[in-house]
Amino acid sequence: MKTDLDLAQFVQCVGDAIIAVDRRGEIILWNPGAVRLLGHSADEVLGKSMDFFIPHASRKPHWDGFHSAIASGQTHLGTNLIRVPALHKNGQTIRIALTVGILRDAEDQIEAIGAIIREDLQAPKQTD
Questions:
Q1: How far apart are CA 67 and CA 50, in angstroms?
Q2: What is the DSSP string of 16-36?
Q3: What Gene Ontology terms describe what this protein does at the molecular function level (predicted)?
């Protein structure tokens, strides 16, 4: 797809969280939507593991799927919307809905895995 659209500007202005991680699972992209949704600034998270926003009980299945996608070159999620819990900076568990995609370089090697994330408004509201 050829476009004159400034994709960096697009990533910065959309309301949804857009994040990307490198092959090690370290965050390389964290847009303002991710700041709004999860509470952490880009300076706090760039170069760090995603573990800070993945609930402890979800980490093993998350990393198993991540490493499988890196090894196989594809994600079993495809373009399906998935709904999972996430941890906000304030310690609260929130429900998110996301899609993921594998980003490849010019030689078709996996460069990163990206996700577009938003609050899961279909999830039941939690009461304190």
A1: 13
A2: SEEEEE-TTSBEEEE-HHHHH
A3: protein histidine kinase activity
Q: CA 73, CA 55: separation in Å to the nearest integer? A: 25
Q: What is the domain count for the chain?
A: 1
CATH of the domain at 73: 3.30.450.20
Upper half-sphere CA count for residue 61 (Cβ side, 13 Å): 9
pLDDT, averaged in runs of 10, over the chain (128 residues): 78 94 96 97 97 95 91 79 95 95 92 94 64
Q: What is the pLDDT of residue 6?
A: 84
d(CA 116, CA 18): 5
Separation in Å, CA 3 to CA 6, 7, 66, 116, 127: 8, 9, 30, 20, 46
Q: How far is CA 125 from CA 51, 90, 94, in A?
A: 24, 17, 9
Q: Do you know the residue count of the chain?
A: 128
- Does residue 8 fall inside a structural domain? no
**pTM for the model:** 0.86
Residue 60's domain spans which residues? 15-119
